[in-house]
């Protein structure tokens, strides 16, 4: 009986080894720091982990890169590749089409914004129009124009030193009116005694009031625009346009949350769209966004808000792949002996 049991065990081992391909095609989606590419050479945490697994199983690997997560998963579902290597979130919908290994990384979603975005002149003009201040400014402009004409007619009648040419006279009167509007004395000659002084004082008071109104209204509009445009996390994305990666869980989440979205093949294109004002923010895997912001300080992007939609990463394989079980067993071993933890520390530092 003992000999028979040993023979059966040996047969199982041989069968498992026969079912494990010696050379496999691994599909990749470049998404630093999990998968990076440098002149056709691939590295990153997911690639390093796969290489460690492949070494344990005696597997040789050829790599094939795909442009989007969706293309990578479709290739695995069709059996075009034996394994999909990147930071793939394990979801129920995906598990209907592909097999997943044991999870090897805990993550979630965060929001990226552009720090360099500022309120421009046209934003302020729209804000003034929406708040009704622009209409008041038009009335002020009309009063200034009327005051300029009336002052010109008055000085041409009573002031012999006033310029004879109309353009010169209008310019002189306009300067006097604007001096009053800005709260500065004009130095004009008083033709009406104390009545004229009182009149000048009243106009000076009106000018100061107008200047205070214009200043406060612009400041109010700029403050409102700043508060409305500020994105500090997920709660501020309602009514905004969000950038996501095509075929990612970020896209699924954004659609289910009712956000207006635009899809891009990778983070580089998403950041370019963010800085071109095509989108207001980007939703993506927390570690990917944080790594990009740290590696590209010149881009002036910032990852904001708390982690949401926690998820787990795994490698994907075609359904009923003979590699699924041996990979999961080896992955559990690498987790237990600290290899996975060491790789995480290598790419993300010590966990605080």
Automatic annotation (TrEMBL):
It comes from the Bacteria. It is a multi-pass membrane protein. The keyword Glycoprotein applies. It is found in: Membrane. GO terms for cellular component: membrane. Coiled coil: none annotated. Its main location: membrane. Residues 1-15 form the signal peptide. The chain crosses the membrane at residues 136-154, 202-222. One of its GO terms (molecular function) is ligand-gated monoatomic ion channel activity. Keywords: Glycoprotein, Ion channel, Ion transport, Membrane, Receptor, Signal, Transmembrane, Transmembrane helix, Transport. InterPro entries: Ionotropic_Glu_rcpt, Iontro_rcpt_C, Solute-binding_3/MltF_N. Residues 23-351 form the Solute-binding protein family 3/N-terminal domain. Residues 23-350 form the Ionotropic glutamate receptor C-terminal domain. This is Transporter substrate-binding domain-containing protein. It comes from Rhizobium setariae.
């Amino acid at each position: 009986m003992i000999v028979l049991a040993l023979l059966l065990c040996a047969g199982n081992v041989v069968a498992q080894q026969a079912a494990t391909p010696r050379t496999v095609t691994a599909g990749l989606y470049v998404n630093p720091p999990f998968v990076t590419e440098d002149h056709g050479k691939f590295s990153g945490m997911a690639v390093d982990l796969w290489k460690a697994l492949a070494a344990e199983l005696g597997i040789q690997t050829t790599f094939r890169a795909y442009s989007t997560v969706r293309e990578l998963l479709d290739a695995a579902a069709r059996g075009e590749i034996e394994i999909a290597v990147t930071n793939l979130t394990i979801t129920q919908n995906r598990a209907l089409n592909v097999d997943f290994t044991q999870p090897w990384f805990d993550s979630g979603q965060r929001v990226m914004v552009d720090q360099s975005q500022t309120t421009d002149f046209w934003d302020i003009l729209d804000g003034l129009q929406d708040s009704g201040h622009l209409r008041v400014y038009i009335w002020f402009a009309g009063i200034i124009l009327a005051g300029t004409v009336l002052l010109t007619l008055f000085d041409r009648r009573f002031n012999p030193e006033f310029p004879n040419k109309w353009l010169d006279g209008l310019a002189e009167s306009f300067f006097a009116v604007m001096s009053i509007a800005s709260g500065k004395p004009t130095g004009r000659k008083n033709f009406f005694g104390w009545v004229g002084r009182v009149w000048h004082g009243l106009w000076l008071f009106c000018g100061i009031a107008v200047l205070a109104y214009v200043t406060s209204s612009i400041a109010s509009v700029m403050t409102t625009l700043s508060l409305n445009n500020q994105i500090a996390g997920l709660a501020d994305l309602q009514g905004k346009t969000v950038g996501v990666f095509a075929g990612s869980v970020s896209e699924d989440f954004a659609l289910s949350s009712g956000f207006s979205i635009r899809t891009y093949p990778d983070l580089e294109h998403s950041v370019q769209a963010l800085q071109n004002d095509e989108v207001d923010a980007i939703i993506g895997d927390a570690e990917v966004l944080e790594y990009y912001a740290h590696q590209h300080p010149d881009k002036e992007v910032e990852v904001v808000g708390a982690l949401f939609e926690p998820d787990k990463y795994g490698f994907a394989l075609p359904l009923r792949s003979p590699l699924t079980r041996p990979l999961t067993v080896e992955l559990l071993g690498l987790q237990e002996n600290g290899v996975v933890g060491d790789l995480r520390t290598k790419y993300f530092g010590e966990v605080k």
